[in-house]
Amino acid sequence: MIILAAILKSPSVKGFFGELGVRLALRKLSKEDFQTLHNITLSDGNKTSQIDHVVIGRTGIFVIETKNYQGWIFGSEHSAKWTQTIYKSKKRFQNPIHQNYGHIKMLQQFFPGYQHPMVSIVNFSSNSTLKNIDIKSSNVHVLQTSGLVRAILSYKEPLLTRQAVAAFADHLGKSNITDSKVKKQHVQTIKETQQKTKSRIAENICPKCSQPLVTRNGKHGTFKGCSSYPKCRYTA
Ligand SMILES: [Zn+2]
């Protein structure tokens, strides 16, 4: 029992149940009008973003960041830090709206044809109490799981056709970086680099600086070295 209680209290398990709660809530959205994707990782080549949930509907694209926090939550739209208070202990954390804004910026790179603002939703689990959350923008929501679907359904104006919703969801699913894809890509890049190096050496071109390689005599016999030594110290 003690072990079970410890497991249930661990942050990763709490996170799992928080995520699950959001997934279950999102199931209430009609499958005909909404496509939901979970745990999406996107990369633009420089940065990587992990997005908890993306709902693509005829009425818009909703980007959801989940926070499984306890205690009282205080914050405002533009402040850098928010505060979590549990009894007398106070913790500061990064403004989750700013965090989600980064996710939206990343998503926009994948949907250049989407001309409407994406809706930012920060979803706190029911363990927390939202206090004085000051939001001015109409496309930003800070709420709890019980209010999630209502907030999404408050958008009534159709912006996308069903085909566009399906195409966007498909594109996002394909852009999602899964671990195996990252690994494959990584291995592929290493292989390509090794191959390039090999062929350049065979052509007597320095793989580091592209100057000719020359054969030199060393203590242990001949070797290929860069002709621009000592500027480049490459040896094959
Ligand atoms: Zn060189």
UniProtKB/TrEMBL annotation:
Gene3D superfamilies per UniProt: Bacterial Topoisomerase I, domain 1
Domain (NERD): residue spans on this chain: 14-130
Protein name, entry field: NERD domain-containing protein
Chain segments annotated as transmembrane: none
InterPro entries, per the entry: NERD, Topo_IA_Znf
Classification via Pfam families: NERD (PF08378), Zn_ribbon_Top1 (PF01396)
